[in-house]
């Protein structure tokens, strides 16, 4: 049985460009749909957060403000309730080791921009996983968490790699707009990543060796499926 570590942000707020504080959390679909696909595919999925803090679901990911239909929101709520024990008592990120897992999977919501993108412990974990050839997967704003991983000379571990993320266009259309602390796509480009993006709000997954990334919430299922396929091929 494959073991997958799902790293979820523990942030519940994000400081915006204008200095105001915006409530946030993980995006329900990205955790629920991904976890369901991975578990139904036969994988053991553990959840970890910085400090082992219980993560907060972004309220707008469960209603129309986030473009989520009530029927879908009910499905996500039900699945999250079914794994409440993991969400309520996640592992502490500092206690986990890359060698104990076959893959690392990072869902989004704006929250990873507040903590995971700068988390040195996560950066070390990602560097270890990458060096060991383990699958490293990230989704939507969760791709910002890759920014935590640096080389010994201060470069970006994933510079030169092909990936996708929540796009600048999507951020302007349905995200925080120009008040975002930073645009994930632009920041990744600045750090040397090669961005391959699809049409806004379409499912898009990019695979580059052991690195698997999904563009947005619509890519949740496809990203998780890509991880299972990659693990099955090892």
Automatic annotation (TrEMBL):
UniProt keyword list: Lyase, Stress response
Record-linked InterPro entries: Class_I_gatase-like, DJ-1/PfpI, Prot/Nucl_acid_deglycase
One function term, GO molecular function aspect: glyoxalase III activity
Top-level taxon of the source organism: Bacteria
GO CC annotation terms, alphabetical: cytoplasm
All copies of domain DJ-1/PfpI, residue ranges: 30-229
Alphabetized SUPFAM superfamilies for the sequence: Class I glutamine amidotransferase-like
GO annotation, biological process: methylglyoxal catabolic process to D-lactate via S-lactoyl-glutathione
One Pfam family cited in the UniProt record for this chain: DJ-1_PfpI
Protein family per UniProt: Belongs to the peptidase C56 family. HSP31-like subfamily.
PANTHER family in alphabetical order: GLUTATHIONE-INDEPENDENT GLYOXALASE HSP31-RELATED (PTHR48094:SF11), PROTEIN/NUCLEIC ACID DEGLYCASE DJ-1-RELATED (PTHR48094)
Annotated protein name in UniProt: Dimethylallyltransferase
Organism: Wenjunlia tyrosinilytica
Source species taxonomy: Bacteria, Bacillati, Actinomycetota, Actinomycetes, Kitasatosporales
């Amino acid at each position: 049985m494959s073991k997958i570590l799902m790293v979820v942000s523990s942030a519940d707020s994000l400081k915006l460009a204008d200095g105001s504080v915006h409530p946030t959390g993980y995006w329900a679909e990205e955790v629920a749909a991904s976890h369901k696909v991975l578990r139904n595919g036969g994988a053991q999925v553990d959840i970890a957060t910085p400090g082992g803090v219980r993560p907060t679901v972004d309220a707008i990911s469960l209603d129309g403000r986030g473009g989520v239909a009530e029927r879908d929101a009910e499905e996500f709520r039900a699945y999250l309730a079914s794994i409440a024990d993991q969400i309520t008592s996640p592992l502490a990120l500092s206690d986990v080791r890359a060698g104990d897992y076959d893959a690392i999977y990072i869902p989004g919501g704006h929250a990873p921009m507040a903590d995971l993108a700068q988390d040195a412990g996560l950066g070390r974990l990602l560097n270890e996983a990458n060096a060991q050839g383990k699958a490293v997967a990230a989704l939507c704003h969760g791709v910002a968490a890759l920014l935590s991983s640096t080389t010994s000379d201060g470069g970006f571990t994933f510079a030169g790699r092909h990936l996708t993320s929540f796009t600048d266009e999507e951020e302007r259309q349905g995200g925080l707009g120009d008040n975002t602390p930073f645009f994930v796509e632009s920041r990744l480009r600045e750090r040397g990543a090669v961005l391959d993006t699809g049409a806004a709000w379409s499912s898009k997954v990019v695979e580059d060796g052991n690195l698997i990334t999904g563009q947005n919430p619509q890519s949740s299922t496809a990203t998780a499926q890509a991880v299972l396929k990659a693990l099955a091929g090892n």
